[in-house]
Amino acid sequence: MSVSEAEDVLSVAAGWRAEGEEVALATVTETWGSSPRPAGSQMAVTAGGRMAGSVSGGCIEGAVADAALQTIRSGTPQLLDFGVSNERAWEVGLACGGKLKVFVERLS
Amino acid sequence: MTPEILRALTDARTAGRPVVLATRLPGGEQTLLPDASAAPALNAAAERALDADASGTVTVEGTPWFLHAHNPKPRLVVVGAVHIAQALVPMAAQLGLSVTVVDPRRAFATGERFPDVTISTDWPDEALDALRPDRRTAVVTLTHDPKLDDPALDRALKSPAFYIGALGSRRTHAARLARLRELGHGEAALARIRGPVGLKIEAVTAPEIALSILAEFVALRRGAELARPGLSGRAQPTKALPEPVESAAEGA
Fold first, then answer.
1. Does B66 touch chain A (CB under 8 A)?
2. What is the residue range of B206's domain?
3. Which of A29, A74, A99 to mutate to test the interface with B (most CBs of B within 10 A)?
4. Is residue B228 part of a domain?
């Protein structure tokens, strides 16, 4: 797979789903300040641990992957809030100082 | 996301049809826009998102929605199936462009030289008429041959293409502009042509020239400040395609 194909996270996620994988899709819905990726940036995660794309410069991908696995299990979408005012953001280290919201949903 | 929404979204993207995936926050109910049964204000917001090529969250009639704009890929029309084009085409594909190579010289425009790309062996003016460049299209001429480059540039100037570039030295470019003037193009139209094409990075090899062309393409697309060719001062930033909501990587 080429890099440009890998950037098309939605197609990758749909392909994984078609293969029978349990897939969650995370999408940046809103950003403030110096967030590294614009709204619409996506990351796909499977129950088996495959990952594609990104929602930040690497700061919050781990936390988003945890939430994605939760959403795969529960089926309930989540709207995650990362920012300097958020204690969790400090934990996961949003070093850029930006704020962003990420919507996590399961591909049913 | 339901399988029905995913299929409809995938179909639209495959067909190159602009659509917006609207997600109601925080619950996650989804619909594809434009849709006749959706609220007119929501459809209007979707149209704006597509027009700006930017996704984001909007509040419509008290309800927050995330509008994810899915526009077709920007297009690059390369006139001249030459050596530089062989370097340019795969790099452009990496940048997410949908590329067409135009060259009526069938010895050059072969599938072996240009795998995995659309090739047109029509005469460049006819090829451009068929491709109908829009404001998400870039046209670059690389043949050095006026009888191939000129008809392509003539058609590109009559289109809203957001990037028009022509390979050739300053002297070649001056002669080219004189010929295009004779075809009736005014100075404002001619100033749209980036010639000599590409950012000035002293490129020598074919991949370096391809890099300089694509760097200029990105700069114009993202509204970076660029010096106009042939002028000493710096021009106002050109925003042919709207910027994404946030600039990339700053402070990351």
1. yes
2. 75-221
3. A29
4. no
Q: Is the ipTM of this complex over 0.85?
A: no
Number of domains in chain B: 2
**pLDDT averaged over consecutive 10-residue blocks of chain B (252 residues)?**
95 93 94 95 96 93 95 95 97 94 97 95 97 95 96 97 95 96 96 94 96 95 71 43 42 36
Residues 6+ apart with CB under 8 A from B157: B164, B180, B185, B189, B190, B192, B193
Q: Is residue B235 part of a domain?
A: no
CA nearest to B25, candidates B69, B52, B4, B56: B56
Chain A 25-44, residues with CB within 8 Å of chain B CB atoms: 25, 27, 29-31, 34-40
**CA B20 to each of CA B16, B48, B50, B65, B87: distance values in angstroms, whole numbers, following the listed order:** 13, 10, 7, 11, 34
Say yes or no: B39 and B163 in one domain: no
